[in-house]
Amino acid sequence: MRRTAGRGVFALLLSLSLGAGDDGDGFVSLFDGKSLDGWVPTATDRFSVRDGLIVNDGGTGWLRSAKTYKDFVFRAEYRVVKPGSDSGLFFRATAEATPKPPNWPVKGYQLQVSDADNNMMIFGHGVTVMFDRKTDVLKAAMKGPGEWQAVTLKAVGGRVEATLNGKAVTVSDAASLTEGHLGLQGENGQFEWRGLRIKELPAPDK
């Protein structure tokens, strides 16, 4: 009995030391599975929560994080519901959106997430950016509609790295914006998201 009680106390102390949402490896959940708390719909009403997933039923606009981030590793899983769907992950983006549709960030970057050949490209909104993408690796790693896919986005200083299903696909060393919001893009088709987690990183040594 003493040994069991001791283990229970240890587990409680460990959970308190990790902090709310911290799963032990430094990652913090950005989605509670029940609501869009911590997220701000911008010029859209097409994001909702169903069956523990963030669902985007088309339309433009975007769903942005309430918090801004500098250097980080972001992980999530997405599933294309409708073949040919097109979306993306905004990062280091301004809260301010363009006044006219599609009402995306005035400035920021976008990692393309799509059921098409342009998947995993990096675009700039109000800013230029260059990137290298391994199309052969992308083709081997990419899954089809209805299948869950794991995406990792790492941004440290001017360097951005994107991984799909455990395979390094895209890299850029030209990210001039240093801080901003994360966001799920509304553009075309239907997507589902789960397992959104982030780990903030210290600034790189200069």
Major beta-sheet overview: 9 strands, antiparallel
Cα radius of gyration in angstroms:
18 Å
**What is the fold-level CATH name, i.e. the topology?**
Jelly Rolls
What's the name of the CATH homologous superfamily? Exo-inulinase, domain 1
String of helices and strands: HEEEEEEEEEEHEEEEE
What is the count of distinct domains? 1
Integer average pLDDT? 90
* Strand-pairing-aware structural class: mainly beta
List segments where confidence is low: pLDDT < 50 over at least 5 consecutive residues.
Answer: 1-20
Q: What is the share of helical residues?
A: 10-25%
Shape by Cα distribution: globular
CATH class: Mainly Beta
Q: How many alpha or pi helices?
A: 2
- Give the N-terminus to C-terminus distance in angstroms: 54 Å
Overview of this protein structure:
By secondary structure, the protein is mainly β. The protein has two helices and 15 strands. The strands form two sheets. Strands 1, 3, 4, 6, 10, 11, 12, 13 and 15 form a nine-stranded antiparallel β-sheet that branches. A hairpin with a 2-residue loop joins strand 12 and strand 13.
